[in-house]
Specification:
This protein is an alpha/beta fold. Helices cover 39% and strands 14% of the residues.
Length: 433
């Protein structure tokens, strides 16, 4: 097949590489000329994605993958077009379709008969049918269901492990017609491989959910569930820590039977997915108070962690505090919705001098984010662990000379190393932390 992938970001590029690895001719479209140049040179534009560099180099060397900024080179006569263009959401849960509208408009100009168009960007329910279908029909002069097929098939992968997740999880599809569903199933079965999953009643593979709306809601539901679950865990943790209870023992005990799946509490919920998609759901369903409350609880956790530090340390005015970790999660160089921003803001509001450390970021990169860099080995009065980087698991007070207080926002440090320091963990009693 000839396949076009629109947007060669941290999901789109691995998808393009995956499709090429199955022997198909893939053309990637991206507005960033530097990304296009690097891809055509067989060089990954961003680090940290397992197997991407070797798979990308092989696909380019074999002539199965190339990139362009020109939709006119990629879209005409493609048997399938997959879009993974970013969608942004503001704090009031209003989606900004600007980039996706622009990509859809350009796609429509060059769309030809017989193409399957698949949107993989997470969307509010109803977007595929009520927004993309009319835009594509108007811009192309073609009729959906007759001249081309439209499907929504959400990506369900995490950056850093995209290729493994593509094999591990069923590929969900939801089309606007039975013929579109057949086309989507045939396409994804030709470009993906699936691990054996005897735990799944339907077996692993392509799952047709019957409509674009069901497929859109499935992605919102699975991610919103995680946000609500973490919000509940954080509520439990805040209560337990103030009443002499270790929430981690409680969670382990509760999850020892199959009906409880309580997640871990922590200082922040970050990334492109969990903080964002519940707001997309709220855009569809503003009466969903459980979702709204969980989002508010999770958004407040950086400030709560700073409050724990203040309780342990005392007045933070004029104190030097190191925030350890700018990334939203360990091992990933990405700050989207990271708790570092709220944590630094809460510390500054209390008069602290705040420095930030992250093993994945250079000083200039931290400064560009608005942070003063910190280096292990330099003195500080207190520290807050914001990211569960592996490098912090063996952290010791000697690496932060003068430290008197630590809030381990991820519960990853060894408490036996911190007996001479006021150490606090969300969800543990003060004397235990």
């Amino acid at each position: 097949m000839k396949i076009a992938v629109v947007a060669l970001g941290k999901i789109g590029l691995p998808l393009a590489v995956q499709f090429a690895s199955k022997g198909h001719e893939v053309i990637g479209v991206d507005v960033n000329e530097q990304v296009v140049e690097l891809v055509n040179a067989g060089q990954e534009p961003f680090p940290g994605e397992d197997q991407l560099q070797e798979k990308l180099a092989e696909a380019v060397q074999k002539g199965l993958l190339r990139a362009t900024t020109d939709y006119g080179q990629a879209i005409p006569d493609a048997e399938a077009v997959v879009l993974v263009v970013p969608l942004f959401v503001d704090e009031e849960a209003r989606p900004d379709f600007g980039w996706m509208d622009g990509a859809t408009t350009e796609l429509a100009k060059h769309l030809t008969t017989g193409t399957l168009v698949s949107y993989e960007t997470t969307l509010p329910v109803g977007t595929t049918r009520t927004r993309w279908k009319p835009m594509l029909e108007e811009g192309s002069g073609l009729t959906e269901g007759q001249d081309f097929h439209l499907v929504f098939s959400p990506e369900r992968v995490l950056t850093g492990r995209v290729f493994a997740d593509l094999r591990k999880y069923p590929k969900l599809i939801g089309a606007l017609s039975p013929a579109g569903a057949d086309a989507a199933r045939e396409f994804y079965e030709a470009v993906l491989d699936f691990d054996d999953r005897p735990d799944l009643g339907r077996g692993n593979g392509v799952w047709d959910l019957g409509s674009a709306e069901a497929s859109e809601m499935a992605k919102l539901a699975e991610t919103t569930y995680r946000d609500v679950n973490i919000g509940l865990a954080n509520e439990f943790a805040r209560y337990a820590g103030g009443h002499g209870i270790d929430i981690y023992q409680v969670i382990e005990a509760s999850n020892s039977q199959p009906y409880s799946h309580i997640h871990r509490p922590g200082i922040a919920v970050g990334g492109h997915c969990i903080p964002v998609y519940p707001r997309l759901y709220l855009w569809n369903d503003p009466a969903a108070e459980i979702v709204r409350t969980a989002r508010a609880v999770n958004a407040d956790m950086p400030a709560f962690a700073v409050g724990l530090l203040e309780e342990a340390h005392g007045d933070l005015t004029g104190q030097t505090v190191a925030v350890l970790g700018a990334a939203y999660r360990g091992g990933v160089k990405e700050t989207a919705f990271s708790g570092v921003f709220a944590a630094v803001g809460a510390l500054r509001e209390r008069g602290a001098t705040v420095l930030v450390h992250d093993p994945l970021y250079q000083d200039a990169e931290l400064e560009k984010l608005g942070f003063a860099p910190f280096h292990l080995g330099e003195p500080a009065d207190a520290a807050v662990i914001q990211t569960d980087h592996a490098e912090y698991r063996d952290l010791a007070p000697e690496q932060i000379p003068g430290i008197r207080s630590l809030v381990d926002g991820r519960n990853i440090t060894d408490p036996s190393r911190w007996t001479a320091v006021q150490r606090r963990v969300i969800g543990q009693p003060a004397d235990q932390g």
